[in-house]
Amino acid sequence: MSNKISIRFYKDHKVRAVWDEKHNHWWFSVLDIVGAINEQDDHEKNRNYWKYLKAKLKKEQSEVVSATTQLKLTAADGKKYNTDVISQEGVEKLAKSIHNQQAIDFLDWLTYSDNSIDGQSRKKAYTLWESNLVADEDVGKVKALQQIHAYLFGGLYDFAGQIRTKTIWKDGTLFCRAEYLPENLKIIEAMPDSTFDEIVDKYAEMNVAHPFMEGNGRSTRIWLDMLMKRNLKKCVDWSQIDKKQYLQAMKRSTTNTTAIKTLLKGALTDHIDDRELFLKGIDYSYYYEQED
After folding, report:
1. Where does the pLDDT of residue 1 fall: very low under 50, low under 70, confident under 90, or very high at 90 and above?
2. What number of CA atoms fall less than 13 Å from residue 268's CA on the CB side?
3. pTM exceeding 0.90
């Protein structure tokens, strides 16, 4: 069993998963699925619901129960516990057995999420850990950011890795005008990045520049972590940063970086060689981009 883990987010509810290398599929936490479908965060209520449903399905001799197995997954307290898990095929059977609109909506999301551009890109992002994509001397440069973007979105966007030539807006925010972008990127690249404050200032400026048509946030957060790992021997534990707080802080960072610096500093860790932390960070990074 591979130790590749994943956290999916359905309506802000976590659904933990682990990759089975031998059988080439994901196993999903049944309790998380039940909680997501019922929009319930109380672990005990989800456990009791699954206990009731499991007994009912056993009595009906449903294939759902036999489709489950147990694997150790990391819980909210940071410890690993044996947890009932089920494959995607099993999830389809489970959703049909619950048989309500919420279950159907969840199944539609699960089936689509892995096949969307974000889903395909996220799968590529997982492999960045082993890729040695960016040379150490290029970390913090525009070239490195382009390499990351091309890696994540190659084959998905025809502009993967290419600096945009059109001016773009998002939620009323005007990013750097295309005609000024090449010169602006040179200025950002030359910014100092030896200290935490310098790195975050550089990150905030790159966010304002928004060098690509799409995929800026996902690429730039990886770029930021590479910078911190090389220069500070630290990285961000993105799972410690609330989505709404992060988005609000980044919006403010166009004029004042205090809020984003506070958030990032509170989530810094020296576990830069922790593969599971990296994979979890990818999931949270992609979660930040999901529409509410």
Report:
1. very low
2. 17
3. no
